Amino acid sequence: MKIALLQEFLDNLRNYINSKSQEGKNVFIYEKNPNPHKLFEKVNIKVELDKHKEIILQEETKLELGGINKKSFSLVYPFSHLDFIKYIKNGRITLIGLESKDISDLSTDFGMIILIGVKNITDKNWESLKQFNLISNGIEGFLIRTIPRKFWCRISENIKTNFTFEFLGNAIFYLYKQRFKDLIESMEIFFINSYPNLIDEIIKITSKINASLNEKWLKKIEEWKKRIDCEYDWGCEICPYQEDCYEIKQVLVEREKIEK
Question: How far apart are CA 95 and CA 45, in angstroms?
């Protein structure tokens, strides 16, 4: 990705957020907690890699972020840390909208942007960094689901009382660092809820960078799904057969090397 493209995206995003804050929209800024375990204990929500693979049914859901009948989007941007370091506010969590305790409806419009600076981008770690299983399977009482053009999170009634977006951002920081360890150099997160018009505008702001990032990979994914006769409608990031699929891919790659 070109540096100018990311710079333009972030400048437009930050300027838009500042303008909406001046108009009276709710904007909260949080910083990464230096002691995440203490925060997790305070809110009494467990966070641990691959320890919370749970299904949250509709009747168990206290709050749904995004969903079929709400506006939603999710954008994860891994990038080369050295190229973009000066444009990222490392450890910053920005919430545009309401904190969880102030959302009275059972569901709300929702968007999430995760920027991830890494030491070295490869095909394998680029794809791994964009997967949501890491988050969904690592937070107690929290579930992420995606289908084409829709994204949503379910928060169970067991954790809703103490759940905050400050907690969610810190949990995401923690889980990524646990999974990828020294590969992760910097991260910044944006959450948007409750303002459907703002979500529409931010989707427009992200469209150019999103197209640039996805152009290369969408073609690869489509070619790959054709090769293995994949007919599932859900996104690769939440596919339960993801690990098996990756192993098959590795076998095919090795076979292609032998045949050359």
Answer: 20
Residues 6+ apart with CB under 8 A from 154: 56, 61, 63, 64, 65, 142, 143, 145
pLDDT digits (tens, 9 = 90+) for 151-190: 899 999 999 899 999 999 999 999 999 999 889 999 999 9
* Assigned CATH for 3-223: 3.30.1650.10
What is the end-to-end Cα distance of the chain in Å, rounded? 30
The domain ranges of the chain are 3-223
The tokens 């506010």 sit on which residue? 89
For 256, other C-beta atoms within 10 Å of its C-beta total: 9
Q: Give the C-alpha separation, 194 to 111, whole Å.
A: 10
Pairing state between β 110-118 and 72-80: parallel
